[in-house]
Amino acid sequence: MIQEQFEINTNTTLPSRINQVDWDDLPFGKVFSDHMLVMEYKNGAWQTPAIESFANLSMHPATSVLHYGQTIFEGLKANKTENGEILIFRPDMNAERFKESCDRMCMPQIPNELFVECVRKLVEVDRDWVPNKEGYSLYIRPYIMATDEYVGIKPSDNYKFIIFTCPVGAYYSKPVNVKIEEFYTRAAEGGVGRAKTAGNYAASLYPAKLANEQGFDQLLWTDGKTHQYIEESGTMNVMFIIDDILITPSEESDTILRGITKKSVIDLARSWGIKVEERKVSVQEIIDAIRDNKLQDAFGIGTAATIAPIAKIGFRDEIFELPPVEGRNISLRIKNSLDNIKQGKEPDTFGWCLKIK
Ligand code: PLP
Ligand code: COI
User: Fold this and answer.
1) Domain end: 168, 198, 225, which one?
2) Same-domain status, 140 and 247
3) Using an 8 Å Cβ cutoff, are 189 and 254 in contact?
4) Residue pair 198/145 in contact by the 8 Å Cβ criterion
5) How much of the chain exceeds pLDDT 70, in percent?
């Protein structure tokens, strides 16, 4: 069995902080569980991972990740069921995407089984930190960073793999307003848009800040070449419903992150007989559908955001108000079903969840 296959050391030194947590007021990403997992890469191999007390890192000022951004991350969630079991949502998919990001960023891969076992063991150790309240989850953040102490540019010879976890509430507390971006670019063909790497997020900060100043929560990115096709939003993939068809930008190009929530929503919708089209989605098509009152729904999907209804879309000088969120039956059904599967309230017919008893 996997559990016996990998050695993971445990060195806890600090007392638990769990009694200091206000479980009724959990902001996203600001409360950290007691432990973290650390695994070093040196001499051409990953070393034995260790679960340690959550603590600050100490780094040489020339550590290469700080200068050149050779780093990748993942995001996944665990929930507690009514009878106290823990369900981790699709960690195998994160493991696979992590490997793809490793390749693109010249970093040594971590085998899927080891990645999943590291996640599983850490969540097991901090199982008391997994919330069992509606709308709350344990967010799990694995990442690898380049740790050579060197000023020149080359792929690092040394790396650190770390996983920490955070009990979290909603990432967006209300429906989001997004602006279609026609000047700035998140990712270019041949670039690193498909990888979950820090630079994609750093590059998006300035255009997102400009959009925030205009009253938008996020950007709706378009392709870098023509700005005529919708790609994804800041931390989410996007979906639209027109004529009862679920439409979402395809991932043929290497500019869009291959979302795990997106894949799950597509599988769920298809299993209910809903027609799904993964294809190029033009800005014009969406604007025309809004003007013709045919756009029934638009929403973002992602691990942190879950299903985030889009309330308004800004395009050039216009702001379009979308149909009221309460009447959006398809995305509400998707959200409920996905939440139920994650919380063990609905049968996991796809076999998505890894259970910790
Ligand atoms: N796109 C970007 C840029 C993201 O950061 C995320 C979040 O992970 C997503 C899409 C959604 O991916 P997933 O559903 O795997 O979380
Ligand atoms: C996630 O949904 O896991 C993300 O990566 C979004 C994050 C940047 C908060």
Assistant:
1) 168
2) no
3) yes
4) no
5) 99
